[in-house]
Design goal:
- By secondary structure, the chain is α+β, with helices and mostly antiparallel strands.
- It has two domains: about 160 residues, GAF domain (Beta-Lactamase, 2-Layer Sandwich); about 150 residues, Alpha-Beta Plaits, CATH 3.30.70.
- A hairpin with a 2-residue loop joins β7 and β8.
- The protein starts with a helix and ends with a strand.
- The model has no long low-confidence stretch (mean pLDDT about 95).
Length: about 325
């Protein structure tokens, strides 16, 4: 009955979209209380990385070692088995363990798309028997954890599709406006201004006409990656229009935004795109809220004006509002 109560709780948490870490914590705590192992943990193994997500009785030193090595023979063994494994003195993998010596160890696979994406383990200082109904319950627990992992990964992918531009991977226009609205609210509440930059890829149409749209797409991805590499971790890069990228710089002034723009243009000028036999430039406009506008619409209009002014002269240019 205790397992049934746990399964109901996991399913309810998935439906309610409780954080995955809370579901993992609930499971490990249940294992600790119900089976009383020496140690237990949920380990994820994806993209050649092993990560201990939640544990009881496992030292931080061992966790760091496992993360550093990113490999373990029991994980490799379970990748092949893909079923609940009970290891004791009669098992060929004995005494291979995670940290402690043991008499019995239980490995429960967590699968995704038919592959091992994680495991639950528990070890015991004494020999412990697991009758068939216990093994079946642990198999069901592993399946529920697999469903939870799949559900949250799918949700994350859907969120990415909703909020990100499919071509460049940066935020899309819709999410940019959501972030901008929040940043305006934050500034109104705290009094701390933010800067806004708009980067226009001037000459994209010529690249598309001369080299094809595949080359034009590569150009856009290059600019997006360049911006992501240059801005701070908490700055937001978004595709504003077909050939324009916007960057929100929280807690920043015009001098900071201009310095970033200068670094981006310098890097762009040394790239393959600056050596084409058709001219390609980056034209940048910069404004600050609330110094340059008291509302979002006016701020964006003035940002567009800056970019339009930057395009007047040949080459890559930066125009900061107000301009003459």
């Amino acid at each position: 009955m205790k397992h049934i109560a746990l399964f109901r709780e996991i399913l309810k948490d998935i439906v309610d979209e409780v954080y995955l870490e809370e579901i993992r914590s609930t499971v490990v705590q249940f294992i600790k209380d119900e089976y009383k192992p020496k140690s237990c943990a949920i380990v994820t193994c994806k993209d050649d990385q092993l990560r201990v997500r939640i544990s009881r009785g496992v030292s931080y030193t061992f966790i760091k070692q496992l993360h550093r090595e990113n490999r373990h023979p029991l994980v490799d063994f379970l990748r092949k088995e893909k079923k609940v494994v009970i290891i004791d003195e009669n098992h060929p993998m004995y005494p291979t363990g995670f940290e402690h010596s043991y008499k019995t160890m239980v490995l429960v696979p967590i699968l995704g798309g038919g592959r091992l994406v994680g495991l639950l383990f528990m070890d015991f200082s004494e020999r412990k028997d697991f009758p068939p109904h216990e093994v079946e319950a642990l198999e069901t627990l592993g399946l529920l954890l697999s469903v939870a992992v799949d559900h949250y990964e799918l949700r994350d992918r859907l969120d990415d599709l909703v909020d990100h531009d499919a071509l460049t991977g940066v935020y899309n226009f819709k999410h940019f406006h959501e972030l901008l609205f929040k940043e305006v609210q934050r500034t109104d509440e705290t009094g701390h201004p933010f800067a806004l930059g708009l980067y226009a890829v001037t000459g994209l149409k010529r690249v598309n006409e001369k080299y094809g749209h595949v080359a034009g797409d590569r150009l856009l991805r290059f600019v997006a990656d360049l911006l992501k590499a240059k801005v701070r971790r908490f700055d937001a890069v978004a595709r504003y229009a077909a050939a324009k990228f916007a960057v929100i710089f929280p807690e920043a002034d015009k001098e900071f935004a201009k310095r970033i723009a200068e670094e981006v243009i310098e890097k762009f000028s040394k790239s393959e795109w600056a050596r084409l036999d058709t001219e390609v430039y980056l034209d940048v406009g910069i404004v600050v809220y609330p110094e340059d506008a008291k509302d979002e619409k006016t701020l964006l209009n003035r940002l567009e004006e800056c970019v339009h002014e930057a395009k007047r002269d040949k080459g890559s240019n930066i125009v900061v509002y107000p301009f003459k």
